């Protein structure tokens, strides 16, 4: 009798919300508690260059974030919404990430695997002033896609950090349009 691999579930909290991973067998919307979604990861390959790294969103334990960012004025009530994707277990080894087992709250509560940002990761940058962060990621449509996807995923939820950054980017867009006229 052959062994059956258990389901491999990845929780998408960033671009995976609007750009699902390969080999998806099923998906369900859900949210995490005790974590924050922050643009606290440098990226020189996806959103920037080695000389001028961009920022990508990462998932961080709330306790870790509190140690790094006493000045982050966003509410503790924020909830990280995302999508739990069941991936064909034959492809689990392709990802190459460190995973944790987390509770993803859905209509059918379950425990899922999830990638989280670690403060000891050399690409982890921590908190930056919101205006500086908005300026850094302004040229990327990534944040707009993510904010739209989160609103579609959970229209009644609110991610104050994400939406505050989106508002700053709208302001930068407006200012750039006015300067070009």
Summarize the structure.
This protein is 27% helix and 28% strand.
Describe this protein's structure.
It holds the Pfam family ChaC. InterPro entries: ChaC, GGCT-like. By secondary structure, the chain is an alpha+beta fold. The protein has a single domain (8-180), classed as Hypothetical upf0131 protein ytfp, CATH 3.10.490. Helices cover 27% and strands 28% of the residues. It is built from 4 helices and 7 strands. Strands 1-5-2 form a 3-stranded antiparallel beta sheet, with no helix packed on it. Strands 3-4 form a two-stranded antiparallel ribbon. A hairpin with a 5-residue loop joins strand 6 and strand 7. The relative contact order is 0.22.
Keywords for this entry:
27% helix, single chain, two-stranded antiparallel ribbon, glutathione-specific gamma-glutamylcyclotransferase, GGCT-like, globular, Hypothetical upf0131 protein ytfp, alpha+beta
């Amino acid at each position: 009798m052959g062994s059956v691999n258990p389901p491999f579930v990845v929780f998408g909290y960033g671009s995976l919300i609007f750009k699902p991973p390969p080999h998806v067998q099923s998906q369900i919307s859900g949210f995490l508690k005790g974590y924050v979604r922050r643009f606290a990861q440098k990226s020189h390959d996806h959103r920037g260059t080695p000389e001028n790294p961009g920022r990508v969103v990462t998932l961080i334990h709330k306790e870790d974030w509190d140690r790094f960012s006493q000045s982050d004025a966003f509410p503790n009530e924020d909830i990280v919404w995302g999508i739990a994707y069941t991936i064909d277990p034959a492809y689990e080894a392709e990802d190459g990430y460190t995973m944790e087992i987390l509770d993803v709250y859905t209509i059918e509560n379950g425990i899922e695997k999830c990638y989280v940002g670690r403060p000891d990761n050399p690409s982890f940058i921590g908190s930056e002033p919101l205006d500086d962060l908005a300026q850094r990621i302004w040229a990327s449509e990534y944040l707009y896609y993510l904010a739209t996807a989160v609103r579609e995923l959970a229209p009644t939820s609110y991610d104050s950090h994400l939406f505050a950054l989106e508002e700053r980017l709208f302001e930068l867009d407006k200012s750039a349009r006015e300067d070009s006229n």
